[in-house]
Structure formats: structure tokens, C-alpha cells
Amino acid sequence: MNSFERYAATIAGQPTDILPRVPILMQFAAEHIGSNYGAFASDHRVLAEANLRCREEFGFEQVSGISDPYRETQGFGAEIEYLPDAVPRCVAHPLGESKDLSLLPTPDPMVAERMRDRVEAVRTMRAQAGQDCSVLGWIEGPGAEAADLRDVMNFLIDTMDDVPFCRDLMDRCVEVGIAFAKAQIAAGADTVGIGDAIASQVTPDFYHSEIQPREARLVQAIHEAGAWVKLHICGDITALLPGIAKLGVDILDVDHMVDLRAVRAAVGPKVVIAGNIDPVSVVCRSTPERIRAAIARCYEAVGNPFMVNAGCEIPPGTPVANLRAFCEPIPYRANP
Fold first, then answer.
1. Rounded mean pLDDT of the chain?
2. Averaged pLDDT for residues 185-205
3. In the chain, what's the furthest Cα-to-Cα distance?
């Protein structure tokens, strides 16, 4: 099996030779090839090279267009500042001082600078990788993008005192997210990740009534465009699991503070669970032996289908030996 065959078989619930490994690499990858985070986030050539070279060295199953949450935000009119050793900074949130949605343009993914750059990253990685591995596109979820446009604190206040505005704003975000996902799929992404980190910070009621239905629209549109869907929500999603279970995602990333058995019980036997090793205390700051043991515990907890992943991004400064241990082949077992 090559990496793509292994990845696709896992999503289909079929046996594989080894478990797919799908680490999220951003600043680590940039620095590993002698570059920096600012170049990785601003130049698709650096992002593609960093992903492809790391895959060649560590042997995982998926390269990724993830870099930061401000791709669509720049298309909506934000000014983005690139930093050499940190996540790009949003200098001014487009709706930070206003709720006037007419101030927002509707970005074209092939025209807006940072959206187009991600599309080109996907295109480059697919051209160079061929069909040997998965290529992951990425969009912001409705809650996350709304928070990026309003600023996090403003949006959290909006969820309590102006729900109709939140609905209208998130509907705009969904519209753009669908167009952005389709552009990446056309460029060669076989999977599109939806990052909706803010969802773990709102009330469960707001998530279930307002964010989840809009995530569902994204999932449906991505599936209709011919790609698989991964959902990534940082933080404790335990209270959100009943709604997540209804989304129909193919892969669910799970952060380290969430009980994997509870996740499997909620989402059922068909959803691929990826995670949920602590990226800092276990992957970055422990030992290869502890990493191997953590992966074994995760696999035992959820069974198949399962993909090896940390709860979030592999941190910069992670020892190479630790990432090698993280990516070691783990045999598929019918009854883990």
C-alpha cells in the first residue's frame, strides 16, 4: 500500500498494513528546512517544500495546506503581518469596530492574495506528490472565521447579546468557505479540513443551534464537490459531541484533554478518529518511548478506524527523534 491507498482504505473502514500518520506540521516544518514561519505562511513554495521534504524524511501519509487562520480574513479585507517565529498577526479585524456587513467584500479564492496562495500550495503539492499521498486543503469554520473578522472577544459577546448578527456573519463565512474549499479541491485536495477552534469556547447551546448547522452546510458542500472532510476543533469538545456526531465528517481530530472512548461512543464506529496525544508534554517534551506508549493507548481506546495524530500542531522545537518515533509504522490490528 502507498500512503494514499492506506489513507483512503482507513476512511472506507477497510484493513490496512499500518495506521496512517497525519501530523499537523507548520512552524516545525518551516524551521526543519531552514526557513521560518513568516515565509511558510506567505509563500506557497515554502509551504509545499516544507511539507514534502518532511514527508520524505518522516514517512507520514498526508501533506497539508494549513498555515494559520487568516487566509480568508485577508480576503475579507484584513491586513496581515508576517512574523518570522510566530503565527501571522491580524493587524486590524475587518469588523472589529463595526457590525456593518456591507463593509465586507466577498473574496474570490483565485484573486484574494492569501487564499490564492493556499490554492497554489495545494496545486504544487499534488503535482509533486502525485497520487502517493493525501493532500489536505483547509478552511476556517463558521465560528472561527466570524471570530477572526470580529476579534474573539467581540464575537463571544455577540454570541450572548446579538445572535441574529452572528447568524448573518457566519452565513457570509460559510459562503466564502464553500468557494475556498471548492478551489482547493479543484487544485488537487482530496480532503478539506474545517478548523473551528472557537466552537469549544462558546456555550454548547450556541454551538448546537448556530454553529453546528453551518458546519453541516460546509460538510455537505465539500462532499458534493468530491472530497473527504476532516473537522478540527481545539479544546474540550465533550459537550459538543452530540452535534458533531450528526455532521457526517469522515475524520475527527481530537485534542488531548478529551476522553477518546467518549468520542468513539458518540460518533460511532465509522468516523475516523485522529489524535489525541498531547503535542507539548508528550510529543515535544518527553521521549520516544512515551510517545510509542501514548499512541498504543489511543489506538486501544478507539479501535478502528484510527489515524495517528497529536491533539494539535507538532510544536517547533520538537526533537527530530521524537517525531520519528511518532511516525513509526504501527501495524493495523483487527481488534486493538
1. 97
2. 98
3. 55
